Amino acid sequence: MTHVPRSSPSLAEEDLPPLKPREKLRARGPAALSMTELIALLVGSGSAGRSGFRIARALARRSPTELATWSTARWLLTPGIGPARAAALTAAFELGRRAAELPASSAAIRGPDDVLAQVRDLSRARREHFVVLLLNARHELQCRETVSIGTLNASIVHPREVFLPAILHSAASVVLVHNHPSGDPEPSEEDLSITRRLVQVGELVGIGVLDHVIVASRGLVSLRSRRLL
After folding, report:
1. Which portions of the sequence form the region Disordered (predicted)?
2. Hey, which CATH number is domain 103-222, 3.40.50.2000, 1.10.3720.10, 3.40.140.10, 3.40.50.150?
3. Is 32 in a helix, a strand, or coil?
4. Angle made by CA atoms 41, 47, 53, in degrees to the nearest 5
5. 3-state secondary structure at position 82
6. Buried-most residue among 30, 39, 105, 130 (CB within 10 A)?
7. Distance CA 106, CA 108 (A)
8. CB-based contacts of 17: which residues, under 8 Å, 6+ apart?
9. Residues 6+ apart with CB under 8 A from 198
10. Does an H or E element contain 83, and which?
11. What is the band of 229 on the pLDDT scale with cuts at 50, 70, 90?
């Protein structure tokens, strides 16, 4: 009897996960999924000749922090990602960023460690973020506001952008926070100059600046603890 070879599948077996991410999500919950599997759920079926799981596996080699900074245009540069998937991925990471900004209910800010607990995501961010923590009269966190997102080494901050959300939320005081993507939390002369200016504006509008905390991968610096505020 003549042996007829079986036709090869269109996608290699290595392109397929041992258990489909959607099934695994239902069975075990999102915490059980790997980075590749989470991205695969967003990517979907992929494109002709390139499975969604294969695309996700390539993307998972990058850090979530890096992917969170990608614009829709940057996602479109990824092979297998079209306009619809690029929009979905951009939206998913933006939702994650906003969720990270939601403060713990009535979290009291008593010192730099309490501040770090609210901005831990900034320590390894690839771009500089300037964030304001809005506090009530009991120093409880009301809201976290991202004022600006800069480049690798600079962030432009204007006093009106800092104090407008504080005024709208009737904040009693604020804590300023920004990160140094370089990994070194030591304040620059520009950091000190911006802080002095914001303290002066805070005094004028009646909203005190309690501290300015700089976070980085190698630690943090509190300007109040250094008596630079």
Report:
1. 1-21
2. 3.40.140.10
3. helix
4. 35
5. coil
6. 39
7. 6
8. 36, 37, 40, 53
9. 157, 159, 162, 176, 209, 212
10. helix 83-101
11. confident
